[in-house]
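Help!! Second protein's tokens look totally different from the first
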Amino acid sequence: MTGHNKTNTDKPATRVHWREIVGRLERAQAAVEQATMPPEQEKKRILKERAKALAGEVTTPETKQDSIEILEFIVGPERYGMESAFVREVYPLKELTPLPGMPAFILGIINVRGRIISVIDPKRFFGLPEKGLTDLNTVILISDGKMEFGLLADAVLGVSNISLAALQPPLPTLTGIRADYLKGVASEQMAVLDAARLLADERMLVHQKSPA
């Protein structure tokens, strides 16, 4: 009988899919790395601990109380500031109605959208040199929720922030009424007024007499 002997060379060659093998290896490596990563909550805890260590365990950050926002303005030859928290608005001086029998530093009253507001002249109140009223005078309306009046200013410069630590006590040369109403003196010789004390002064009240 005649037959055929089959050899290994008769089997089809096996093709190696390298791309598939590489892909499996990459997926296996990613799975191993994922398995060794900490859970999400654990990661957050670790990051928090690292942040504390870097911060030196300091848990009291600087707050806004370390500085105040002030409105800067000019009165006579001097530069003043006042906490913007007490400033309601800046209003152009117009239609001022003088009131007889009032202290000299109370110039009169103005009507601001139906509200009758008394206008105080800081130059007369603080004993500063006067130069008279002009069309450029501005009224700074201040209030603490109970008392409200306007401060006459020659010019408003803008708003800025100053550090409370930078405030210096009033100079010894500032005696009398001016020193009593100052929070302190900032850089560039700017006097910061104590708005709360000004608003608490009963002399600022305007008592209008009813007509007989």
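Here's the second one for comparison:
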Amino acid sequence: MTIRLHVNVDHVATVRNARGTTYPDPVFAAAVCERAGADGITAHLREDRRHIVDRDVRLLRERITTFFNLEMAPTEEMVGIALEVRPDAVTLVPERREERTTEGGLDVVRSAAELRPLCARLANAGIKVSLFIAADQAQVDGSRALGAAQVELHTGEYCHARAPSRVTELGRLRLAAEHAAKMGLEVAAGHGLTRHNVADVAAIDALVEVNIGHAIIADALFGGLDAAVRDMRTALERGAGMRAIPPREQER
């Protein structure tokens, strides 16, 4: 089974904005990723515009030929932009201005009243709704109740854990993914994934998509963006090839 690889181009914009130049261009980077075999492009329009900016979003929508996933905080401003730009999917994520990167999943259970009308507006506009959540059954159930088409499981705890905790975190991801699939949700994963740790996640039967940015852009510094995307694809395929192996055997 081939897992969809969506490449996040945020950190191309991070380098650009560090000097206030027009390069490197995340829109050009997206085209390179598509040619290298990416199934889609992800970009996170943050409220403080620290990397991707509004112009990038509009140009990405015009030029992406595969699939455009726009990550954003669940706010009226961001939903308004999404309804104007019409990405293929919107992934709602929690956002705090002081954080370096998204640090956890949305609490869709506690925030259901605020999220429900936003999700409905996006879905009614024909935009696929994905919710970035912790690998927790209650959060999966809450996402289904909000009408999401997909959940993206936060893999940060798995990526940062060491053995034997990593095995525990992998098990949590697997259980949440299986439950989401049974609920009729597509299952994606993201945050902290690299070509070194992604295979075990890709071996989860229910997983259909990953969103990876920082590690690919980091690898591109040494081998080029085209090669970095292809290397990540190889790692994903290696993991998907493990799906016929029982989980206990995978973890040995």
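Reply: Different proteins will give different token patterns, so don't panic. The chain has a mean pLDDT of 94.
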